[in-house]
Design a protein that fits this description.
The protein is mainly alpha-helical. Helices cover 65% and strands 0% of the residues. The protein is built from 3 helices and no strands.
Length: 86
């Protein structure tokens, strides 16, 4: 898994889909996701999203001059920096 917000979103959506599938009849036990595991994924997702918010605020505060961390795309960093100067 790459370290990008798009991947975090995709994982969270996949988690919701697997939870819904687990309620359907005919789904194999190994394809079901427990509520506990989904909660753990959600908690980690929340931490990552909070981290991204801090990164966005930092980029805006520095006018995009901060070195990108790789979590947000380079184009996103440039755009955020440009928007902060307006």
């Amino acid at each position: 898994m790459k370290n990008e917000m798009t991947n975090v979103r995709n994982l969270l959506i996949e988690t919701m889909e697997r939870l819904v599938q687990g309620e359907e009849e005919g789904v194999r036990d190994e394809d079901r996701m427990t509520v506990e595991k989904a909660q753990q994924i959600s908690n980690i997702g929340n931490v990552l999203i909070s981290s991204a918010k801090v990164e966005v605020d930092f980029i805006k505060a520095t006018g995009g001059k901060a070195a990108p961390t790789g979590f947000l795309g380079e184009q996103d960093v440039k755009q955020l920096g440009n928007n902060s100067q307006e």
